[in-house]
Amino acid sequence: MREFRVYAIKQGTVIDHIPDGKGVAIIDLLNLKSWKKIVTLGMSFPSKRLGRKDIVKIEGKELNPNEANKIAIIAPTATINIIRNFKLARKSQVEIPEVIDGIVKCANPSCITNHDHARTKFYLESAKPLLLHCHYCERYLSEAEITLL
Amino acid sequence: MPRKSTLRSFKNRDVISVRDFSKGDIQHVLKVAKTFKARPHPDLLKGTILASLFFEPSTRTRFSFESAMERLGGSVISLADAKSSSSSKGESLSDSIRIVEKYCDVIVMRHPLEGSARLAAEVSKNPVLNGGDGANQHPTQTFLDLFSIHETQKKLAGLHVALVGDLKYGRTTHSLAYALALFGARLYFIAPQSLQMPDHVMRDLEKIKAKYSFHTHPEPFMPKLDIFYATRIQKERFPDPLEYEKVEGIYVITKKLLKKVKKNFRILHPLPRVNEINYEVDNTPYAYYFEQANNGLYVRQALLALVMGKV
Ligand SMILES: [Zn+2]
Question: Which of A83, B63, B118, B192 is 20 to 30 A away from residue B71, measured at CA?
Answer without folding.
Answer: B118
